[in-house]
Amino acid sequence: MNKKGRNRGVVLSVATVLAAGTLAAGCSNQDTSGAKKGAGAQQTEPKRGSITVSIYDRNNIPPEEGNWDKNRWTEWVNQHGPVDVKYVPVPRWESLQKFNALFASAAAPDLILEYDTNYRNQWYAQKLLMPLDELIDKHSTIYKELMSKVPLLKKLGTKDDGKLYEIGRVTPLTTNHAIYIREDWLQKLKLEAPKTTEELLQVAKAFANRDPDGNGKKDTFGVNLSGNGFTIVNHMFGHGLNDWDIQGDRIVHEWDRLKASVAFQKTLFDAGSVDKDFLTDKNGEKAKQDFLSGKLGMYLHQGLSSSDYDTFKKNNPDGKIAILPLPKSEFGQFSPVLGAPVQMVAAVNAKAADPKAVIQYIDFMVKPENAIVIKNGLEGLHWRKGSNGCPQKIDPEKNKKEVYTADLNMLTSEVLFGKCAFGDSIENPSATDKALSELNSQAKKAYISKERPVPSLNATALPLLPDALSIVVKNVEKQIGTGVVRGDIWMKAIVNGPGFTADQALGEAKAVWEQAGGAKVDDFYAKWYADNKNALFLLDDLYAFDEQIQQFNRGRTDP
Q1: Are 252 and 296 a contacting pair, CB within 8 Å?
Q2: Does 486 score more than 50 pLDDT?
Q3: Are 553 and 422 in contact (CB under 8 A)?
Q4: Could you write out the DSSP letters of every residue in 342-404?
Q5: Backbone φ/ψ region at 445: left (φ over 0), alpha (ψ -120 to 50), beta
Q6: Looking at the domain assignment, is residue 214 inside a domain?
Q7: What is the number of structural domains in the chain?
Q8: Which of 38, 47, 358, 515 is the most buried (most CB within 10 A)?
Q9: Both 370 and 398 in a single domain?
Q10: Do 170 and 35 sit in the same domain of this protein?
């Protein structure tokens, strides 16, 4: 990553950022019943709005709790919030298809919650999103104040027409993707944790062929390529969430690293170390079950939940899990996807009937007194305040069944929780809490490092393409993919044996790109970077921003 010409002026003072904690007055020392009192005041409003809001569906709600049509948390939001809300479930791993179908049928929700910048850019280009500047100025208090404290929220949420279209959040820099490895399998087979991609291949083959679970059957896999697998392997080879990277003092379309990643995945597949049917595992659920049941040695995934860990330990009482730093490839050593400290997560449907109500909902969800409930559950039922003022679980088993709200709190800016935002506030942790805390510590040490950077440009750094160029990218998406979307040509190279190599896939992919007019896209990005490289918030700035947050936190004495 080029380190020259960065404008450090865009790196916000963390004292300023966390001064936004004034929004959270009482977050750590005020009873959360304050949310109820606030809701009571809303009864003076002449009219109560009604909106629809998307929510990722991960099939993680216990049947007895209901679904996203009705459960304890949808009822809590509707009872305590300022507007009536109906949630629209969207499959997490098929969100683009679902949202596009909803837009096509004029049934898209009023508030769209989606992590993928490329998807939101597509909808903006199609004029499906509503500008928010005037709405926030007139109808917001909480989010408007947060934007004033963190100007980067406005910078990243503003599109090329100069208007604000996206809502974001501010959090500490966190790990997101990770490699979980069966440490007990390594010990049993007398293997070292792999430090290079070649060593990872050998370990994966051993996990698949040397009966690490000791049942006398050849029924284990070395590593998964479904779910987050493709993206994480790409990162090993220095190919990130975008297909463009900074080399020297310019931006280029990065083909060679993607080809190397695909060639490596093909080698894993041909060696029999991965599930031969991984392409049918669209959402990665099969890989997850393989890992939790004790049939997968290296799990390329996101964070494990407490229920995931407990399921794993129930099925594998002697199983030991460790975090594996991304192995070094011929391109260097990198880290997987991180949770950006300032991240855009939401947009408003251009056809929303009551945009004022949408803004009222956003304010309600961002307000720390409400966000802390949505994140942790109800005080007195699911948690109590510890001596440090931070939420402490009362009954972890109860919370596993009743607090399934991770996707409901996508709008939460956790830095407003003060010290309680930094994940080190659990008193009297359970065995599961201790294990997950240790894995989290290992992940931070392995992945949050300037020496092992996240490869390529941050997804939010790339500008929106003009309509004609957006069509070029969309037209080739199925064949060669974009970002995290896996193109058919590359998948064909992985599974088709010697009949279709990674080099052949590269040739076909480049031909498709050129024939579609892709050179114009490459030229657009090259000119944009040349013109704007001194004013971008890039990886160096991200790590500096996080270090300021950590330094500020180390100096805090209050929660």
Answers
A1: no
A2: yes
A3: yes
A4: EEEEEEEBTT-S-HHHHHHHHHHHHSHHHHHHHHH--BTTTEEE-TTSSEEES-HHHHHHH--
A5: alpha
A6: no
A7: 2
A8: 358
A9: yes
A10: yes
Q: Is residue 138 part of a domain?
A: yes
Domain enclosing residue 469, as ranges: 459-530
- Cα angle, residue 149 at apex, residues 147 and 150 outer, rounded to 5°: 65
| CA distances (Å), origin 232, targets 69, 151, 200, 236 | 34, 31, 13, 7
Q: Classify residue 137 as exposed, middle or buried by CB count within 10 Å of its CB (0-12, 13-18, 19+).
A: exposed
Taking alpha carbons only, the member of 290, 329, 302, 288 closest to residue 194 is 329
CATH of residue 128's domain is 3.40.190.10
Q: Which two tokens stand for residue 327?
A: 């192995």
Helices (runs of H) and strands (runs of E) counted in the chain:
23, 15
Token pair, residue 534, equals 């001194």
Judged against a pLDDT cut of 90, whether residue 538 lies above it is answered with no
Q: Clarify whether residues 468 and 440 are in a common domain.
A: no
pLDDT in tens, 251-278: 999 999 999 999 999 999 999 999 999 9
Q: Provide the 10 A C-beta neighbour count for residue 26.
A: 11
- The answer to whether residues 20 and 52 belong to one domain is yes
pLDDT band at 543, cuts 50/70/90? confident
Give 412-452 as a DSSP string. Answer: --GGGGGGGGGS---SS--HHHHHHHHHHHHHHHHHS-TTS
Does residue 545 lie within any of the structural domains?
yes
> Two tokens at 493?
């190279």
**Claim: this prediction has a pTM higher than 0.70:** yes
Buried residues in 9-19 as b, exposed as e (16+ CB within 10 A): eebbebeebbe
Kind of pairing, strands 296-301 and 221-223?
A: parallel
Residues 97 and 61 placed together within one structural domain of the fold:
yes
Q: What is the pLDDT, as a whole number, of residue 320? A: 98
Tell me what pLDDT residue 90 has: 97
Residues in the chain: 559
Q: Answer whether residue 32 shows pLDDT above 50.
A: no
CA atoms of 312 and 318, how far apart (whole Å): 10
Answer yes or no: is 161 within a domain.
yes
Do 41 and 170 lie in one domain? The reply is yes
400 with 549, same domain?
yes
287: helix, strand or coil: helix
The string of pLDDT tens digits covering residues 46-86 is: 689 999 999 999 999 999 999 999 999 999 999 999 999 99
Burial class (CB in 10 A: 0-12, 13-18, 19+), 169: buried
Mean pLDDT of 144-169: 92
